[in-house]
Amino acid sequence: MTIQEAIKNRHSVRSYQAREIDAATVLTLKEEIEKCNREGDLSIQLITNDSSVFKGLMAHYGGFRGVSNYIALIGPSGHDLEEKLGYYGEQIALRAQQLGLNTCWVAVTYKKKLCKAVVKQNQQLVCVLALGYGDTQGVPHKSKPMPQLCKVDGEMPEWFRKGMEAALLAPTAMNKQNFLIILDGETVKYEAKEGKYRNLDLGIVKYHFQTGAGL
Fold first, then answer.
1. How far apart are CA 201 and CA 52, in angstroms?
2. Low-confidence ranges of the chain (pLDDT < 50)
């Protein structure tokens, strides 16, 4: 599966099979996480065989079932942390999709205090990615029309269009797609509109756009 295919095929999945992730897949995923941690100066961690974080009323409210693996998105506290975790977290989510796994971004409906990841001083756990073999492959989210989410003076270049097509498929909080991508000459600018997790969403959207556009 190519990265472009992963972008098209990846959908949020909340219900998972009672199936352990095989050792080879875990190793490959850890290698991707280590790569992202080096590039982004982050401390993202894979936690397997731990169902405590997704038990109780909050997980039930969020519709989660059978989650026993997750990726903890952690990094040094700072103004750009959420955007970086969104960017690299989505890179990892799409790699998981290529490996035959399913994921779901989770910011609230999990037991943060029970997370087994190591969070050092001056670091922050922002959210997690539920991970595993889904009961289904999920369904595509509804999307706003492309002209509402971008601004281009003149004719839209093909590379920008491909980037936008990928950006439209990016998961965002409550599927609100509160972002705007602007082509100013040869420069691409990104704007996050008001809303909770706006910077996390912007990082996810940036990764989709840049991957789709071949940047």
1. 26
2. none
| Calpha distance 1→49 (Å, rounded) | 26
> Would you state the torsion angle of the CA atoms of residues 59, 60, 66, 69, taken in this order, to the nearest 10 degrees?
0
Rama region for 195: left / alpha / beta (φ>0; ψ in -120 to 50; rest): left
Amino acid making up residue 108: V
Strand order in the sheet with 102-106: 45-47, 69-76, 123-132, 102-106
Distance CA 65, CA 61 (A): 10
The contacts of residue 159 (CB under 8 Å, 6+ apart) are 213, 214, 215
Predicted model pTM: 0.96
5-53 pLDDT, tens digit each: 999 999 999 999 999 999 999 999 999 999 999 999 999 999 999 999 9
- What strands lie across the sheet with 150-152, from one edge to the other? 150-152, 179-184, 187-192
